[in-house]
């Protein structure tokens, strides 16, 4: 990984978008709907083509979007959420917008995952819930969603999946898998009718680490055998 998507040329950044798109689809985090993006520079980002992410092909080009102003032709209306987050969060270099099954089911209960296992610790004490089930397609809704996200790495949308953010698109994609797995564990625990041993603050601090290539290894696993993955520049931002 590089320090930010802005350090990649446009062709390389586009390749990361395509690989990330297919990784989200292969992992069951998206279906016909969902999108991902990567910051290109301080004022622009690249977002996945307006098609199901599992159908993104090596010749497809992402859409270049400014962090302010009207969305360009080719950008889905929901991309306004990406735009607002990039404008308000200069630390964000990548975003994943997905609708994974366990997370959607849990959000229908008005819940988000607690820190009940290692992956859940990254979102402790739990990601905020955007309770409005309507599609985020307008500036006011995008502002509300971004406000809930705050300085965190995820926000859950009631009945409509979630958004994860990271310093790179690789990190955002890995966190998407973590969040869905946290929802799986939460639902399994709720199904027992028993109380859960939630992580303490100290346990969260010690477990939610980025050293040892933890996020990078998840990215490698999610993108294994992708037709373009071997063309990506490898590195690390977390060691």
Describe this structure as you would to a colleague.
By secondary structure, this protein is α+β, with helices and mostly antiparallel strands. The longest helix is centred in the last third of the chain and has 24 residues, at 169-192. It has helices at residues 10-26, 80-88, 101-108, 139-149, 169-192, 201-207, 214-223; strands at residues 35-41, 44-47, 63-66, 94-98, 129-130, 154-157, 162-166. The protein has a single domain, classed as 3-Layer(aba) Sandwich (L-fuculose-1-phosphate Aldolase). α1 (10-26) packs parallel to α5 (169-192). The relative contact order is 0.18. The chain contains 7 helices and 7 strands, in the order αβββαβαβαββααα.
